[in-house]
Write a structure and sequence with these properties.
By secondary structure, this protein is α/β, with parallel strands linked by helices. The chain has 3 domains: 91 residues, no CATH class; 81 residues, no CATH class; 112 residues, ATPase, nucleotide binding domain (Nucleotidyltransferase, domain 5, 2-Layer Sandwich). Helices cover 50% and strands 15% of the residues. A 5-stranded mixed sheet has the order 5-4-3-6-7. It has a two-stranded antiparallel ribbon with strand order 1-2. A hairpin with a 5-residue loop joins strand 3 and strand 4. Helix 7 packs antiparallel against helix 8. The chain is flat and about 75 Å long. Bound molecules: zinc ion. Zinc ion binds next to helix 4.
Length: 308
């Protein structure tokens, strides 16, 4: 009897129906488990990795009970909890599933290094990126400094713990790339999932800069409305290949706008410096923007204006 009670409890989740909980379950119903059907992917459900008789929602990671493994219940969760995804095609969820499986594979590899060391590695990579320092600094300067500091302050044993933080140049480059990909994905999702007009609005800030190898780089930031507040997001940094005319700047910006599914009709403002390639009335970057959307408010950057 104990066995039976434990088995029934473990197969139930808070989501399962009260009527089912109270129902008199016989041993035959316990063994007759509902099986996952590939069609359930259209409600964003996949079988749980731990127990494939339980459905897991890919969007919120909720695991439902085996009793809920029927289209009506899965659909109810899907429509109630994730209304933004209702119009998505089946292929969207199939892609999501393969991304999840790939992530799980990668995560398994990462787990060989302690979680805290992974976090430290990511945070150091972020710091180097923000301070624009070479990736090799992590291995050549930061790690030796850490070892000196913890040896002096905590002891030799602590040095061994610090040594496991992955800080090679390649690792730092990979971390920065994956954080950058994540920012890009968040931006794509923001514009793909938004149904209301306000959240689709955006403003753009662009500026040119020259890197240490004398190449022209274009930096762009977006201002969007997310979770009810105004947020600034890094948009992209790309090299201006040959010339730096208004047309070149526009083409580069436009490629990035279109690849992320952002619409010019929702652009409310563009902010640039006063350079002719940006502000030029006929051929400047803003002239190209105004051709597409004449309602965009053009702002001359305050900080640049102070300098000029
Ligand atoms: Zn869900």
């Amino acid at each position: 009897m104990d066995k039976y009670v434990i088995k029934t409890k473990s197969s139930e989740s808070p989501d399962s129906d009260k009527t089912t909980k109270n129902a008199k379950v016989t041993s035959s119903t316990v063994s007759a488990k509902r099986k996952y059907n590939d069609e359930y992917i259209e409600f964003a459900f996949i079988p749980s990795k731990e127990d494939n008789s339980l459905p897991v929602c890919m969007l919120c990671s909720t695991t439902l009970s085996n009793e809920a493994m029927v289209p009506s219940k899965l659909r109810r969760h899907f429509e109630k909890k994730h209304p933004l995804y209702i119009n998505k095609e089946k292929s969207y969820f199939e892609n999501l599933r393969s991304q999840l499986y790939n992530q799980a594979k990668r995560f398994k590899n990462l787990c060989t290094v302690p979680e805290k060391a992974q976090i430290a590695s990511y945070e150091i990579a972020q710091l180097l990126a923000k301070k624009k320092k070479p990736h090799a600094d992590a291995e050549n300067i930061i790690l030796p400094s850490l070892e000196i500091a913890v040896k002096a302050m905590i002891g030799t044993q602590a040095v061994e713990r610090v040594k496991v933080i992955p800080l090679s140049g390649d690792t730092i480059a990979r971390r920065i790339q994956s954080m950058s990909d994540d920012i890009e994905l968040q931006l794509k999702e923001h514009f793909a999932n938004n149904q209301d007009k306000m959240s689709n609005l955006w403003a753009l800030q662009v500026d040119e800069s020259t890197d240490i190898s004398n190449k022209a780089q274009l930096l762009a930031f977006l201002r969007i409305i997310k979770d009810g507040s105004i947020q600034n997001q890094f948009f992209f940094c790309s090299e201006l290949k040959q010339t730096t005319t208004g047309q070149d700047v526009f083409e580069l910006v436009n490629t990035n706008i279109e690849s992320r599914g952002i619409k010019w009709e929702n652009c409310i403002s563009v902010c640039t410096d006063g350079a002719p390639s940006m502000q030029g009335r006929k051929k400047g970057f803003v002239a190209h923007v105004l051709k597409i959307n004449p309602n965009v408010k053009i702002v001359h950057c305050m900080i640049h204006r102070e300098v000029w």
